[in-house]
């Protein structure tokens, strides 16, 4: 999980790289995070496998906490 506002482009951050590195949850703060990740996916910089891995870990944590 990132901290608040850590994906602000003015600070040199690229949200898709956070997700590609295995950061499953990006805290709110930058309204362009979603568009950046989608754009990277469309350009082939971020794979469906990486995105599904992030989602899978979140789903697994929800399942674990629900028991």
From TrEMBL:
UniProt-listed GO biological process terms: carbohydrate metabolic process
Name of the featured protein: Beta-glucosidase
Gene source species: [Clostridium] clostridioforme CAG:132
One GO MF term attached to the UniProt entry: hydrolase activity, hydrolyzing O-glycosyl compounds
InterPro entries: Glyco_hydro_3_N_sf
